[in-house]
Each structure stands twice: as structure tokens, then as C-alpha cells.
Amino acid sequence: MADLILTGASRGIGHALAKALAKSTEDRLILVARDRARLDALVLSIQQDGGQALAVPGDLSSLAAARDLGRRLVAVVRPESTLVHNAGVWPSRRELTPDGLERAFVVNHAAPWVMQQALLDAGRLRRILLVSAGLLVKGRFDAARTPMGEDFSSIRTYCDTKLGFALAMRDVATEHPELDVLVMHPGVVRTDLGARTGPVGWLLSLVKRGWESPEVCAERLVRVLSRGRWSPPGQASWSMEETEHPWPAVTEDVATRRAVREVHARLFPGT
């Protein structure tokens, strides 16, 4: 029996997905989030319903914390496991982490890549699902500016960082043909992602009322996770909700793919 690692498990899509998976899979759920109290409550609820779950509190807001999380996951995760990258942020202002990097770039791209690398090096993974965003088509990843947020925008930075990690996952699939890799737009979902204060926040909350619930999205993700295979060896697939599509044109741009690789070579030499 393998494990399923789920980041961002304490809220929104992650919380709903953990509850749905507990009813549909025999895999042990390894649940990751910053909020220890919410995570423990979720694990207890799953166990009371007869499921298997383990809380691994972890923070993806710095590279050091991501490395520590990766080491702790390696210590408990079994081989042939599935990793679901679900944690993410939509920033409203530019913030730098202790690494000197823009916060959304770290949380949405660099930190999950660092955490994942530990699991890959240890041979723990068979499948990786990245819960991404259709808005990556609006991204423009700049190797010199995006990591530090020098091109920060309260809308575009979310798109840029989602694009960057999606491209990084395509390279991971190429480098690890033993993996099954899917990058997926999960749907337009009513969560706290991108929440704002003031009139803009009020207007956004009204708009979100028409979006689907995390529970509806979670059922979709359960169906996707139940499939036997997502992608050909050495490739990552791109899906809009449950339907596979050709990769968007922006993800085929040679200069953009080179920019992501330049950043990885600079930040993660030797990997």
C-alpha cells in the first residue's frame, strides 16, 4: 500500500480533497499544512471515519522550511507514492521571504520544488499531480525579475509563478520517465485564494458566490486520481478540469522555458 501526500490540506480544495479521498482510497493520506490545529482536527476526523491519515505540519514559505519538510516526509513516506501539489497563494502585495525571494514565487514554485526533490532523490514517488491554474496562460516568466518580484503585479504574479512551476514539472517529467505527471487546472473554485479587503474584496466575494464549491472540485480530483495513467513516460500532461488538452502556447515558448531553467540552475545548483 502506498501513500498520497497532499499539501495545503487544512483549507479549501485541499481540505475537501482529503475528506473525499478518505472515503474513496485505501492509501494512507499524508497531510501537509502550516496550521497544526486544523491539520490535527482533519486527521482525527478521517480516522474516526475509518480512514488512514498522518499529519506532517510544514511550511512552504521559505526554502529552508521546504528542505526540512522534504526530509521529514522522506522519513515517513513509502515508495510508489503520489504527491499532490495543492498549496498556493495569490498575493496582494510584494513580500520577500528570508531567501530574498518574492513570497508567491517561493510558495507556488520554488519551495514545493525543493520539497519534492527530496522525495525524488529518495525514490519515494510514482505520480505527481500539480493543481495549477488556467491563468498560467497569462504568465510571463522573467528569469531576472520574477523570482525577486521585481515585476510584481497583484494579478500577473500569480500567473507568472503558476506558469514557472508548470514548466518546471515538464522538465521533471523528462528527467524522470518513471514518473506519471499531470498539471491540471482544477476549475473555478470558491476558496479564500486571492481574498482582499475593502471594496475590491467585497466585490470579489459576490463574484465567488457563483463559483463551484471545494467539494465539487474535490470529487473531480478524486476521479482524476483514480485513473491508471495520466501521461506517457518522459512527458507531463496538461488538463483543463478532467479533459486533457495540448499544452498552452505560452508553455511551448523556448525563451520562457529557458528562463525557468536559468533560475533553477542559479537557485538549485547541482540538482
Automatic annotation (TrEMBL):
The keyword Oxidoreductase applies. The keyword Cell membrane does not apply. InterPro entries: NAD(P)-bd_dom_sf, SDR_fam. Keywords: Oxidoreductase. Pfam families: adh_short (PF00106). One of its GO terms (molecular function) is oxidoreductase activity. Belongs to the short-chain dehydrogenases/reductases (SDR) family. This is SDR family NAD(P)-dependent oxidoreductase. It comes from Myxococcus llanfairpwllgwyngyllgogerychwyrndrobwllllantysiliogogogochensis.
